[in-house]
Design goal:
It contains six helices and nine strands; from the N terminus they run αβαβαββαββαβαββ. The protein is 35% helix and 22% strand. The mean pLDDT is 95. The strands form two sheets. It has a seven-stranded mixed β-sheet with strand order 3-2-1-4-5-9-8, sandwiched between helices. Strands 6-7 form a two-stranded parallel sheet. The chain is of the alpha/beta class and 205 residues long. It has one domain: 3-Layer(aba) Sandwich (Rossmann fold).
Length: 205
């Protein structure tokens, strides 16, 4: 098996890295990457944050490709990838300072997206960050004709997939204890949404 290669990762990894450098601190110790895909992002980003354990995850069928990238790169702060299927699996039982995911919300069904956000609310604590990269709609409108065409293409393959509404994401994050720190315009009509976990309050309080 040859290493899987994503041209999109090659195009977006440097712009994403520059934003991660602004929101990952020297005090952070663990990052969970949800939907690591080919593994290219982990291999590209992790060396820039040597203090950070980078934990790649994805569905079972993606893990072999991620391992091929890791085996070749031999980067010491990337941990072996583990299966994480949203709606079925919990996060690894560790304290994570940052959760990062790229180009996953439009692949997941919205039910799964809400399950993912609930997991973030249950598992992250005050000051932890959740960082989402990808295309989003605003007030029901696409940010470009190319995103609208991409949404049609996604729905042809799976009617329950598609570009998500920023407002739906933001409202679900607020409901689960987060606040939006920044919404950053990225190349190719994408966004970086940075959320911070507010002080944890138990359901009984």
């Amino acid at each position: 098996m040859n290493k899987p290669i994503s041209p999109a990762c090659e195009r977006n990894q440097e712009p994403i890295l520059q934003i991660l450098k602004d929101f990952i601190t020297h005090e952070d110790r663990r990052l969970l990457e949800v939907g690591s895909g080919t593994g290219q992002h982990a291999v590209y980003f992790a060396p820039h944050f040597p203090q950070l354990e980078w934990h790649p995850t994805d569905v079972a069928g993606k893990l072999k490709g991620i391992k091929l990238w890791m085996h070749e790169a031999q980067i010491p702060n990337i941990l072996p990838p583990v299966r994480l299927e949203i709606g079925k699996d919990d996060f690894p039982k560790l304290k994570f300072d940052v959760v990062f995911t790229a180009n996953t919300f439009h692949i997941m069904h919205w039910k799964e997206g809400k399950s993912f956000i609930k997991l973030l609310g249950h598992r992250l604590r005050e000051g932890s960050r959740a960082i989402f990269y990808g295309p989003f709609k605003y007030e029901g409108a696409f940010t470009s004709p190319s995103n609208e065409a991409f949404d049609r293409q996604l729905k042809e393959g799976d009617p329950q997939s598609g570009i998500r509404s920023f407002e739906d994401i933001n409202n679900a994050m607020i409901k689960n204890g987060f606040e939006l720190v920044q919404d950053i315009d990225m190349p190719a009509n994408n966004q970086m949404l940075i959320f911070s976990r507010l002080k944890f309050v138990s359901e009984r309080s």
